[in-house]
Design goal:
There is one protein chain. This protein is α/β, with parallel strands linked by helices and 387 residues long. The protein folds into two domains: 4-14 and 272-385, Aspartate Aminotransferase, domain 1 (Alpha-Beta Complex); 19-271, Aspartate Aminotransferase, domain 2. It is 41% helix and 14% strand. It is built from twelve helices and 13 strands. The protein has helices at 19-30, 40-59, 74-85, 100-113, 130-136, 159-169, 188-191, 255-271, 273-295, 321-332, 344-350, 368-385; strands at 4-5, 68-71, 91-95, 116-120, 141-147, 172-176, 195-199, 211-215, 299-300, 311-314, 334-335, 337-339, 357-361. Helix 9 (273-295) runs parallel beside helix 12. It is globular, with a radius of gyration of 21 Å. It starts with a strand and ends with a helix. The mean pLDDT is 97.
């Protein structure tokens, strides 16, 4: 049976060429820990970690590689940043299409610290009105936290314009780049982003277990460390270092994952983000047009390729989305994701709560033949379902 992977919004597959070999090289030939040995293999691994920070800084238009912090995923990044920054009485502005990586920490902070937040309502296709964002900012607003693009419908938010508003209002701007890193050009300086949180295993085409955030010098002292412990630095003291990146990186890091991310970043630089996005939009347009011919009622969100990612959700009206997803997998080898996608607020915005959707998220390694195969499979599954 043919296999077609359409769940790149959850994690990319396949990974970039060279990722597996890079991880294998570290595990089988390098070994050693970083910041915890002066022998050659430890120093060699340390150089790869440093270079990976530099590559990420360059990718995101940031000039402080030492302020590139590694975590195990973007959820840990968001928890570190939000719980380390926000104090009692602080107010936050979010969109109505945020992932639970943002919403659950904020709800917890609301319950335990008295932090408040305003949810700016997006329209039925996930678009936000800049006037509503500006109106939501109050005197006690500490930060605006926004996803760069919805993980449910693919709609991109106007991050550069929101960043401009935040700068004018002197409000911290925190961006969730889970769905856009590696597929959109993102420049922290040009977009006035103070903290950018990323994951390494989606658009960056690297392995799971790698994430992080980039933070400006001005905010480093304002964010408390989330975890304290051994850093390999100032080991004669029992107080966590305040300098970067040690302040936020305690314990043994994921060095195999860093080697893999290093390889994927090299690949992305070689191919070019513009080329990656162009191909993904071509595939997305082909899929949407095909679905319009099948039944346009099923399409959730935007039907064009402007200001979006290659994430497309379908709600099979009158049918069980879970069964459709299962049939596509079992009988056609097509991998998709049904349900809430860890974003109930987004589904409420899009009108797909509580039934959820079947999400198709395409990647650079998908082909036009994949899209045509998926469309034909959807036709056949719908026909069989209704017989």
């Amino acid at each position: 049976m043919r296999k077609v992977y359409c769940d790149n919004g959850a994690t990319s597959f396949p990974k970039a060429p060279g990722v597996g070999d890079a991880i294998k090289e570290y595990v089988e030939s390098v070994g050693g820990n970083v910041n915890r040995g002066a022998y050659s293999s430890a120093l060699s691994a340390g150089f790869v970690v440093l270079e990976t920070r530099e590559m990420l800084a360059e990718l995101f238009g940031f000039d402080k590689p030492e302020n590139v912090v590694f975590t195990k995923n973007i959820t840990e990044s968001m928890n570190t940043v939000l719980k380390g920054l926000l104090k009692e009485g602080d107010h936050v502005v979010v969109s109505s299409v945020e992932h639970n990586a943002v919403m659950r920490p904020l709800v917890k902070l609301e319950q335990t610290r008295g932090v408040t937040f305003t949810r700016v309502q997006c329209n039925k296709v996930g678009e936000i009105d800049l006037k509503d964002v500006e109106a939501a900012i109050k005197e006690d607003t500490r930060a605006v936290v926004m996803t760069a693009a919805s993980n449910v419908c693919g709609t991109a938010l106007p991050i550069k314009e929101i960043g401009k508003i935040c700068k004018e209002k002197n409000v911290i701007f925190i961006v969730d780049a889970a769905q856009t890193a590696g597929v959109f050009e993102m420049n922290m300086k040009e977009m006035n982003i103070d903290i950018l949180c990323f994951t390494g295993h989606k658009g960056l085409l690297g392995p799971q277990g790698m994430g992080g955030f980039l933070i400006t010098d001005e905010l480093v002292p304002q964010v408390d460390s989330f975890i304290e412990g051994g850093t390999g630095s100032k080991s004669d003291e029992e107080i966590q270092p305040e300098y970067m990146p040690d302040k936020f990186e305690s314990g043994t890091p994921n060095i195999p994952g860093t080697y893999g991310l290093h390889a994927s970043l090299e690949y992305i630089k070689k191919v070019g983000i513009e080329n990656i996005h162009k191909k993904e939009m071509m595939l997305t347009e082909r899929f949407i047009k095909g679905m319009e011919e099948i039944d346009q009622r099923f399409i959730v969100g935007k039907r064009d390729t402007e200001n979006r990612t290659a994430v497309v959700s379908l709600d099979f009206v009158g049918m069980d989305n879970g069964i459709i997803c299962h049939e596509l997998d079992v009988n056609y080898g097509i991998s998709t994701r049904p349900g809430m996608h860890c974003a109930p607020s987004a589904h409420k915005t899009l009108g797909t709560f509580p039934q959820g959707t079947v999400r198709f998220s395409f990647g650079y390694f998908n082909t036009e033949e994949d899209i045509d195969y998926v469309l034909n499979a959807i036709k056949e599954v719908i026909k069989a379902y209704n017989e």
